[in-house]
Each structure stands twice: as structure tokens, then as C-alpha cells.
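Narrative progress, year one. The postdoctoral researcher (J.K.) led the effort to move from monomer predictions toward full complexes, under supervision of the PI. The following entry was the first complex the group processed end to end, covering 577 residues in total.
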Amino acid sequence: MSDRITSEVVAKVARLSRLDLDDAELAAATAQLGDMLDHFADIDALDLSSVEPMTQPFALVNVMRDDVEQPTLDRDEVLLAAPDPVDGRFGVPPILGIEP
Amino acid sequence: MTAGQIRPIANSVRSGAARAVDVLNGYLARIDAREAEINAFNLVLHDEARERAEVIDAEVAAGRDPGVLAGVPIALKDNMCTRGVPTTCSSKILQDWRPPYDATVVQRLAAAGAVIVGKTNLDEFAMGSSTENSAFGPTRNPLDVTRVPGGSSGGSAAAVAAGFAAGSLGSDTGGSIRQPAALCGVVGVKPTYGTVSRLGLVAFASSLDQIGPFTTDVADAALLLEAIAGHDPGDSTSIPKPFPSLEPSLTRGVEGLRIGRITDLPGGADADVQARVDAAFDALAAAGATIVDVTIPAFTYGLTAYYLIAPAEASSNLARYDGVRYGMRVAAADTNAMYSATRSAGFGPEVRRRIMLGTYALSAGYYDAYYGKALKVRRLMAHDFDAAYADVDVVLTPASPSVAFPFGSKTSDPLAMYLCDTYTIPSNLTGHPAMSVPFGTGADGLPVGVQVLAPALGEATMFAVAAELERAAGAAQ
């Protein structure tokens, strides 16, 4: 992966990340990510074809419990932290009917 | 401050020889005198701590035992949830958030009789190595206020070094307990992954994060770790076994132990730091241990693997900050615009950088080249350490490549900051335990931390070696 990351790719990554970048921020991010990826190219020298990926330190097994009701968080206490609680629910701006 | 504090306090409070309120007042007085200069805390809980200490004293007066941490003032990194008490992660996006529950470690501290004195400053969402990335201003190193305390748990390290708390908790994803412990001259432990419950620890990189203690000596670290360790059904990665007592380790010595010296360790450690690590090997050899050369070829590639895996996990974990259920919201015409406006205003530059790096490493077309490869390097790291631990009981390295550095010296170059984590990252990738022990001083009289690494669940041996290093450092003074 020796090709430098482009500002078009960084702009797409920012969109995927739900982050707004202005032109100066986009230029800075492109340069910084490019420098990092150059550094990270050191692992390209490794032959990893026969190595299994490792996602967790130790093998995990599903943790099961009996299907019985447990205490849950208090709804009113949870909604105290919500930016826009509406009738016991989380309020959000419109999601439909607005052009992207 | 090198003498232990937790044991003497708990002993005297439990026996009635001292009152928890008086103990607390001593710590609060130091906070009042110096916190404006140090900025170790995002929040000091003066009133809550006094009420709690009074409850502890009343229990003792009524003939009950409040627990092994009775009346011990403890500081909490501000990424651990405290019910009804702000938990900010030093981020604007969580500035006013009050969690509706306590983290498991908070419950365990309470059950053991501890007194929470405050929530400590950190690099935003624990991303950084200097605490300069906090949205609420940096923490200063109590030993030299022109220098950083390390990070990301810089506030927790500084709080213990400044005598603001008898012990504290931090979280360590790539060195965030051990590196600040080294820079502030205190003991810092990252236990085996799964030893301490992560329930209520705000997630950064879930396969790497682990909570651990900061203390002024090794015996205190053992006691505080024992109090918070143990299985928690609420964390599916929690090890379903009781945590063993570390008490026998403190006096075991190192007779017969094999101490690994990594011959292909990546360079970059300053000469003053390396000299102290060399002296640590000599001290352990003089105390009856055998020094054995080992190789860890993957060590060099740890930085790359970590800085792809941790941001990848972070980009996923931090997707939850969307302005819907809690935290900051910036109003916008539709939901998508609200997400972006909120996240752009709420996250600082380093957090945004890592979210983008992680999103890139996970995105279609780049996943195999970056994230997939990094996971394979992680496997190599585990293999290399397993092979080394066939020949040795523990491995010694520097905890940090340098002593505490001046403010601003690495902030313009993210990669220079990342290199601070060179020696601490491998233990997070493998899940193995590691700790930093103060072992003399380097340049400008600043403390150097020697890192003891051990295999999974090897805390008993790790603490035996750490205790020996502490004795040797004390004898040399």
C-alpha cells in the first residue's frame, strides 16, 4: 500500500465517520493520515499468509444466563441524560423527507 | 512519596486508631493547596467524600468492619461511570453526562470501604500519552510542573504522586497506566485482560482496555488490585475465576526466577532510561535471579498493529456518540446533519484523527491491507511471547522511552507521541499483565519506571519481581 492516501478518500472516510471537515482540516488530515500509513507500511515486509488473525487476547465463549427478567435501568433516570426526551422516548430531528 | 499509604490507613481506620474523616481532610488539604497548579481532577468530590468518610467512621464505631480499604481516599479516572456524578472522559461531548449506574470497580471500591475523592483528568477518551488532549486543559506533573504527567491516565498518576489520593484507578489500552506511572514516579499496574471488570468503563478499544491501580508502593498496588479484581457476570470478557492473593509475592524474593532480556527490543529509549533498566537487571541478578536473553521479533511491529487495531475498535465504539441518547447535541435540520454537527463539535482533534484512521482501516478495499494484517501481527506477538515464556518467568523493559517531557514537545507530530507507547503496547495486544515500578532517576532527577512483563495470569511472579525492584531501589537511596 505505497500509494499516498488522497483527500478524496479522506473526505469519504470523514463522511463515513459522521465528521465534518473544512478544507484546512481535510488537508491536514490527509497529510497526517498519509504519514501514519507510511509508518505502518513496516508490516508489509512480513509474510503473514499462514498466520491466523487474533481479535481477542483469549478465546471467548458466549456467556449465557437463564431467560428470566433482571432489573434494568430506570427509564426516567436514563432520559434525564437525553438531549431531547419526548414522551418517555429519545427525540430526534426528521429522518425522512429531507434531501441529502 | 515512596512509603505505602493504603495499608496503614485501612489498618488504622479499621482498628479505630484513626478516623476516616481526619485522613480525608489531610488529602483534601493537599488538593486545596496545589490542585489549581496540577489540574489532576475534572471534579473533586469534597462533600460526597466527607459524607462517605463519616459513614465509614460510624460503621467502625458501631463495631462493624468497613472492609480492606476502610477510609482510604481513592481517585477515579473520569472514564469510569459514577451514578449521578459527571463522567466526562475529558470530552466536550460528555461534558454534562451523569451516568445512570456505577461501574463494577466503583461498586467494589464502595464495598471495600474506600472513599472516592474525585474524578481525574485524562486524554480525551483515553487517547494520548501526555494528558494534553483533555478538553479541560492538561494535567501538570507534580514533580516538575513544566512537564507532562504522561497519559492517558495522567490525572490519576499525578493525583497519587501529589498526595491528593492514597491510590487511584486508571485504564490502560496501550500503556495509559504504566507510562504515566513511570513519568510521575509511582507504581502502575495493567493486569491480565479480563482480571478487572470493564462494565462501566467507557469503551475505547474493547479487546485492549483494562483497569488497574496507581499507588505509591507495590504492596498497596497488590491490595488495591485484589479489591477490584474478580469475575463479573456483567462483563463477558471477565475471567470466571477468583483472583489469587498477591500477599505471598511481596516477600517471596526472586531467588530461582528467570528474568528475560529482549535482545531485539526496538531502540528509542534514552540512555538515562536504559541505564536504569540495566541496573534493574543487575539488582535482580544480585538478589538471586538469572538473566536470560530472549527474542521477540514481533515487538518492533507492535506499534503499527496497535495503531490500526485500537483506532478500528474506537471508530466502532465511539459511533454511539450521536447526540441521540446522552451527551451533547448540536441542532440541525435532519438526523444525519445532527450526527455530524454534534460529533464535529464534541470530539477533539486526536479523537477525530483516530476515528478516521480506524474507519479507513476497516473500510472496504483497505480492511485486508490494514486491519486484517494488524490482527495477524497481533497473533505473531502472542506467539513470540509464548515462546519466550517457555524460557523465562518475566521480561524487563523500560516503561517509557524517556522521562517526563516538556509540554508541547510532541503535540505537533502525532507519530512522535505514539512512539511513547512502544514498550507498553505489546502487553495490551497479548492481554498479558505488566507493571511499571519506579527505579531511580534519570535526566534532571526525574523518575524512571522499569516495566515488568509476565505471561497471562502471571501477576504473582510479576509482583514478586516488582517488590524486589522496590527493595533494591530503596536500598540504593
